[in-house]
């Protein structure tokens, strides 16, 4: 079935830093960072480098000693501090996590201060007015730097810049608290065996228990298994409500404070609301374009959503034996699974047996090797022996090589399983950008693929659902976008694109797990090694569009919630009431009063009026995939063309231009509607 991602948010620190690296021109005041800060040495080095930039006489300015030197300084900073900050999201050591969060707070403080340095702004403006001879990539970097100096408030009076800085510093602190509350949420739902009928034994075997009571957490493998398989509705309701209260009521107050601070920033900068400010550098350019996009899409989706929901109603009546049963939000995963099993003869537990994780990873590697001409080398043991940083025994490190050129392109960490206090979603964390230094030496990109797949047990290996396989391909699309970049400027490396373009390569790559030929290359039974039966595979693919419109409406709901919160001019609003009202207008499920989804909605801090980007970029992703359909999903020729036209270019070229270059025409919406099983 089609899965429109409940996607993985970038943490706010990553968005802030990536924006600063790509677009902002930082300088620092050393006193902003305590001398005992985890990032103090890296900041001191950046401060010194930027001081040297400012000291260059205007008559002697050129790209190398001004903008090139700026990119050098910021890229070194990113390389030095990212791993420390990343530990806040993955380390098993509480002290190390706290150190990572402190580093994150200090870095954000530093970036905020840096964007208010008038002397550096003047230096970059002096370079621009000298009409230097620049490459197209350098000119784009200069244009974006000047644009974002303006967006950082450099055209305001000094008094207003100080006000803006104070707002940003306060927002930084409140945002970090909001995200930490989600990350540290350890909600447990105690449930007896009688309350968990039909939940797979393999799942329950991993759940801690006290006597006859299972202590069920909200980690993805446990939560999804209960929501998919538990035939007892009160249990599903209990888990759903707990999940939709993640972050706690304290996060409601923090969020409402964040929204007010953002609204004040927007007013200072001359924007009607923060949504217009945040969308300005993206593909959509303003919030009105997003609203128009939704207005066009919603009536098309609603037509099929009504049919999907009626199918849910009939399925619940049959499954429960109650002809008057009301479909609730906590029924969605269960009814999807029921329809797969009873309408399409797809047993999710049986399907899992054909997707042992290691075999799936091998298949993923084989697909991308063929498409892009790559080779993967597991260098975990050698890297450990050499003292490289690993944060858990299950983490691996892979190098990625270009087969034809016999050169290493980059590397990625692989962290597949859930742990206490680990980041609870699925995401790729950029740790080091690609960069060609002034002396010609190359820094290769590094990233971490962080997942939460079902861990192995004594009886069997990690077995993935088909949805898990889709998630893995999605995340690996992000990883390759980081690694296959050929950008020479660190601030244009990999996923340093407009935020509403970032998801396109990863969403496009999900399509490979819906191709029978591709799945047939690696779907093997974990015990016997037998290939997945053709009839089961055929049924899986036939079920792709089960409840596709209901899922699309869920994405519209999240996007409208995000946008509505950020389009309020004064930022003063009752977030729970709005969440309730929007769910009633955007979805067919009744709102559950005991919930407050916004308290655990990371995207509100990390994306901030950017959630629409998942549907927006998916429209383009499905159009791009038509080229692979026509040329062959495993065609090296088409794969190499995609690699060179988009993945290799990173943020060096306008995003729409990259699409037109690959497609040979303007993008169209029709392939997206076909992908969802919709007709306009």
What does this structure look like?
- This protein has 28 helices and ten strands.
- The strands form three sheets. Strands 4-5-6-10-7 form a five-stranded mixed β-sheet.
- It has five domains: 12-183, Endopeptidase. Chain P, domain 1 (Glutathione S-transferase Yfyf (Class Pi), Chain A, domain 2, Up-down Bundle); 189-243, no CATH class; 271-347 and 547-610, Neurolysin, domain 3 (Orthogonal Bundle), CATH 1.10.1370.10; 357-507, Collagenase (Catalytic Domain), CATH 3.40.390.10; 615-675, no CATH class.
- Helix 2 packs antiparallel against helix 3, helix 3 runs antiparallel to helix 4 and helix 5 packs antiparallel against helix 6.
- It has helices at residues 12-23, 40-55, 64-90, 94-114, 118-129, 136-151, 158-183, 201-204, 220-229, 233-243, 249-268, 274-279, 287-320, 332-343, 348-352, 357-372, 380-385, 466-483, 504-509, 516-519, 534-542, 548-566, 575-586, 603-606, 613-631, 636-645, 655-663, 670-675; strands at residues 189-192, 209-210, 213-216, 374-378, 396-402, 407-415, 427-432, 435-436, 442-443, 446-450.
- Residues 1-31 have low confidence and may be disordered.
Overall shape: it is globular
What would you say the CATH architecture of the largest domain is?
Up-down Bundle
Tally of DSSP helical segments: 28
The CATH topology of the largest domain corresponds to Glutathione S-transferase Yfyf (Class Pi), Chain A, domain 2
Q: How many domains make up the 3D coordinates?
A: 5
In which order are the strands of the major sheet placed? 4-5-6-10-7
Distance between the termini: 20 Å
* Strand-residue proportion: 5-15%
The CATH class designation of the largest domain is: Mainly Alpha
Mean pLDDT: 93
Let me know the number of strands.
Answer: 10
Main sheet specs: 5 strands, mixed
Secondary structure category: alpha+beta
In CATH terms, the superfamily of the largest domain is Endopeptidase. Chain P, domain 1
CA radius of gyration is: 25 Å
Which regions are unreliable across 5 or more consecutive residues at pLDDT < 50?
1-31
Give the fraction of residues assigned to helices: 40-55%
